[in-house]
Amino acid sequence: MEKLFFRSWTQAYPGIRFIFSGSHRNMMISMFTEKNRPFYRSTHLMQLDPIELESYKDFVRHHFVSNNKSFDGKAFEDIYTWSRQQTYCTQLVCNKVSVRYNGLNYEILYDVISSDSGSGKPCFSGYTKLLTHMQWKVLSAVVARKNHWLVPG
């Protein structure tokens, strides 16, 4: 069987609709808008906005409460803000909290984020690309000092 490039393969199946998605917006846009790229003008671009905070909070609250776990809405709001509304990281943190603890609060949230960000877990290692250089330095310094950086001031 002849080895096909991905674009050729997608063109070989015109009845199938492909969805290309990614969290790095600039990279995704350049794949389809730059003349020298293989997927140039091959698709309709659509941007999905982040999940709205209140809807997301209700969704996560439902899952915590239905599993008899406490839920601090303000702590979730800080996860949402801290993760820059990136669904993968938001859900990863919430999942870790749900699996390890009986609920969500600031102390638990701090434990999860500080232990995982120091160990280079996938969610947190990607933050070098999502955060500005200064934001990354601040996050690294806070985690290193083990301050309660999520406690409201």
Molecular structure report:
There is one protein chain. Mean pLDDT is 79; it is low at 147-153. The N and C termini lie far apart (63 Å). The protein has 2 domains: 18-48, no CATH class; 53-145, no CATH class. The chain has a two-stranded parallel ribbon with strand order 1-2. It is mainly alpha-helical and 153 residues long. The longest helix has 14 residues, at 53-66. Helix 3 (53-66) packs across helix 4. Helix content is 57%, strand content 3%.
Percent in helix:
55-70%
Neighbour order of strands in the largest sheet = 1-2
Report the span from N to C terminus. 63 Å
Q: Quote the average pLDDT.
A: 79
Shape: elongated
Major β-sheet annotation: 2 strands, parallel
Pattern of helices and strands = HHHEHHEHHHH
Number of helices: 9
Topology:
Layout: H1 6-11, H2 25-33, H3 53-66, E1 70-71, H4 73-82, H5 87-100, E2 103-104, H6 106-118, H7 122-125, H8 127-130, H9 133-145
Parallel strand pairs: 1-2
Features:
elongated; mainly alpha; two-stranded parallel sheet; 3% strand; 2 domains; 57% helix; 9 helices; 153 residues
